């Protein structure tokens, strides 16, 4: 149901031509002939007003595989349901966050990785991860993502 919110916005874009579910995935779709979008959602912000998006080891492997099949054309849509907004980042940006977290864990691979998205009123998204072993302390300076990036970012705008 929540995937439909993202897919509808994509379908309304002037450069949209086709959408197909990627058969091996419950969350990934092929847009036009070479754009992959992997969709996750969180219903409401929780502690510290962050939307929490958890990626299992299996999901991270799936996204990595998609990125090898479609280099530089894989995006992750993080749907913030309560605020009715979609934060979209490239696979490379997501992989960079996972690498920062792994470095902070001294190269230990986590079973799950959690991405945090904050949406201050009237401002852009703030994407971050927690510092290992702490709550409420962020890993790095937040990545700022414009609310208006989606779905244009998929089509190279």
Low-confidence stretches: none
Report the span from N to C terminus.
27 Å
Q: How would a textbook summarize the main sheet?
A: 5 strands, mixed
Regarding quaternary structure, what we see is: single chain
What is the third-level CATH name, the topology? Trna Endonuclease, Chain: A, domain 1
DSSP helix count?
3
Q: H/E series, N to C?
A: HEEEEHEEHEEE
CATH architecture: 3-Layer(aba) Sandwich
Could you tell me the radius of gyration in angstroms?
Answer: 15 Å
- What is the residue-averaged pLDDT? 93
Side-by-side strand order of the widest sheet: 1-2-3-5-6
Q: What's the count of strands?
A: 9
Q: Give the overall shape, derived from the CA principal axes.
A: globular
Please give the CATH class.
Alpha Beta
**Approximately how much beta-strand content do the residues carry?**
25-35%
- Based on secondary structure, the structural category is alpha+beta
Residue share in helices?
A: 10-25%
């Amino acid at each position: 149901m929540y995937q439909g919110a993202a897919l509808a916005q994509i379908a309304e874009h002037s450069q949209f031509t086709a959408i197909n579910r990627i058969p091996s995935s419950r969350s990934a779709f092929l847009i036009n002939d070479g754009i992959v979008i992997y969709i996750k959602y969180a219903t409401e912000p929780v502690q510290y007003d962050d939307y929490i998006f958890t990626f299992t080891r299996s999901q991270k492997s799936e996204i990595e595989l998609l990125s090898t099949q479609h280099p530089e054309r894989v995006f992750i849509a993080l749907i913030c349901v309560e605020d009715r907004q979609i934060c979209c980042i490239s696979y490379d940006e997501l992989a960079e966050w996972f690498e920062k977290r792994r470095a902070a864990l001294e190269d230990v691979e986590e079973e799950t990785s959690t991405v945090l998205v904050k949406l201050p009123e009237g401002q852009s998204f703030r994407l971050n991860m927690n510092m290992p072993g702490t709550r409420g302390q962020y890993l790095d300076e937040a990545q700022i993502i414009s609310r208006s990036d989606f779905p244009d970012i998929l089509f190279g705008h």
